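Entry for the shared binder. Reason: the reviewer on the internal report wants the predicted structure included alongside the sequence.
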Amino acid sequence: MWKGSTLSLLLGIPAWCAAQPQGTLIDRIIAVVGREAILYSELTVRTEQARQGGAALGPAAVCGEFEDLLYEKLLLEQAAIDSVVVDAGQVDAELDRRIRYFSAQLGGDQKLEKFYGKSITEIRAEFREQVEDQLLVQNMQQRITADVRVTPRDVQRFYNSIPADSVPLINAEVEYAQILRQPKPEEEEERRVRRRIEEFRESVRKGEKDICTIAILYSEDPGSAKECGELGLVPLGTMVPEFDAVAMSLKEGEVSQVFKTQFGYHFMQMVERRGEYYNARHVLMRPQVGNPELLKERTVLDSLALVIRDGGLRFYDAATRYSEDTESKDLGGVLIEPNSNSTRWDMSALDQQTFFVLDKLKPGEVSEPQLLVMPDGTKAYRLLQLISHTPPHRANMKEDYRMIQQAAEGKMRAAAVDEWVGNRLEGTYVRLNEDYRQCRFMHDWTLQEVND
């Protein structure tokens, strides 16, 4: 989440945790860790975020947020000692990602600027240092836990240590696969779009038209069109390989040839390059697909479903051979849950359409072709196969090993962090404001405190 420093957030903290001086409190230092200070406003923003997330803000919760800040400042202090830095391009890319996200949440850049009362440029400048610190904290955390390794014996010991009445209840889960078919436009439509975008590209190259205007009026990339086609600074690997390859071949200000990706036809103009990061403006135009092409793919899937049900072809082999979903086809169509990187999906986390289709299938059964609207707005058809269905149950080593392994690893990482904090506090100057010494912390943050 982003942090801010508005007056409304300063009013969000419970009165118990800071004695208010006479007059209006703007901000003050409430702790120092090495050369890093913690401001009152930082804690109020943290507690307000927790409150908005539904947390009960009692004294213990506020103290917990405060200790999290102490820990982060200790990581930043150690990063300075170890000369750990974050690449400027990485900071820019993260800033761009966050601004795009919050712009989308609020309904566009204008509403984002209105919300903050600042321009996008000013917002970037205000949050740049904060984002850099967050990336540094992440890097330091990874260093601390880099050597943590969990063996099967560790996992078994961890599971055995859980009291019987505390073993977590697992929701109903499924494993499923898909065969996805996306309709192809007719050749004449491909040629029409190619001619059109070539004309636009040539007018930009000759200086007759501005790429910004063309992007706003004609580009079919909804994420960048309203930004004059500009992507913001992105690292290599963010875009599809064909896009990266063209970007890396251009000099600043240069306009590319028209090229094709899975999304359609593009041309781009390079804005700037910083090592393996680049910022470019681009125009995207997609050949349109009609109902005949869409129904053709439905017919293909109808035929495949019949062959699979008759035993003439395994779903796995059909997906490998005929599916057009690049992320799942090499896995026989099996879908991977992105948060856990597992093949098992919590039924309650599935989108509504997928839930209702799978809920009617038995393991091994194949659905009828389902119309699907893709994230970019195009339409496709897919077949779904339910591979397995696990009813709600108490976690066990056979069915839930990966989840238990992750929990065991998390506990070992936490232990590594606790040991690291304890060692660093022995030689790090820490001073807390008197108002916060009543907190019951996980660590003794006053170990090296110098009393006045």
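Summary line for the report: The two ends are 37 Å apart (CA to CA).
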